[in-house]
Design a protein that fits this description.
Rossmann fold; 7-stranded parallel β-sheet; 7 strands; globular; SDR_fam
Length: about 250
């Protein structure tokens, strides 16, 4: 399917690896101009080279809301604007509610809520002025059903989802869509960092009807579709991509 985004300018956050990289790769394959970021210049440059298609890169600290906003500004300066924004970032440290001190929540909110807000606020004015834009945020299935041992992530990403849905309502008439994609367990460093490769991961796989970890490339294809011309009437959605793990009716 031709997605109609050839030549569109896409800023993809935290895309040197994992689901961010997979999303950038899917957009490059569709002919979009892409700029990625990482906190490490070497990783960003290597990922951009591997992605090909003239992919650009910048260094950004996405744990800091100001740094997140600068990423969008730098990408816009490099490409002459941003038509597509894929919001992504490093998740907070794992831990249960009981073992997580209250003082840890501000940093989690900075990286997984306020950074999301700042990236969107940096991108949307020009999108609205042009009458076309796509924002796709990579959040977590923990927004729907909290994951064990991820108290900070479950809390901060739920707030981000509320912001994204509110924003979607406010700018839909301007031709800008805002959706979030909620990954379940995929074969990424983040998942193995939290669950390892042993019994803990096996217990989580037992909850997935598909019986396996998701493939990052398959996830990236869904992100690319949400950025397409065909998805112009889909906004304010929070889409689980989880191998059937989420089974509630609502």
């Amino acid at each position: 399917m031709e997605l109609g985004i050839t030549g569109r300018r896409a800023a993809v956050a935290a895309a040197s690896s994992g689901l961010g990289y997979a999303s950038a790769a899917a957009l490059v394959a569709e002919g979009a101009r892409v700029t990625i970021c990482s906190s490490d210049a070497g990783r960003a440059e290597a990922a951009a080279k591997q992605l090909g298609g003239g992919t650009g890169w910048v260094v950004a600290d996405l744990t800091d809301p100001d740094g997140a906003a600068r990423f969008v500004e730098d990408a816009a300066a490099a490409m002459g604007g941003v038509d597509i924004l894929v919001v992504n970032g490093p998740g907070p440290a794992p831990g249960t509610v009981e073992e997580t001190p209250a003082s840890a929540y501000q940093a989690a909110l900075d990286r997984s809520l306020l950074a999301v807000v700042r990236m969107c606020l940096a991108a949307t004015p020009d999108m609205r002025a042009r009458g076309w834009g796509r924002i796709v945020a990579i959040t977590s299935l923990g927004v729907r059903q909290p994951y064990p041992n991820l108290a900070l992530s479950n809390t901060a990403r739920a707030g981000a989802t509320g912001f994204l849905r509110t924003l979607a309502r406010e700018i839909a008439a301007d031709g800008v869509t805002v959706n979030s994609v909620q990954p379940g367990l995929h074969g990424t460093e983040r998942v193995t960092g939290v669950y390892g490769h042993g019994a803990a991961l096996e217990r989580q796989l037992e909850t997935i009807p598909a019986g396996r970890l998701g493939g990052p490339a398959d996830f990236g294809s869904i992100v690319a579709f949400l950025c397409s011309e065909q998805a112009n009437y889909l906004t304010g959605a929070s889409i689980p991509v989880d191998g059937g793990a989420y089974q509630a009716l609502l």
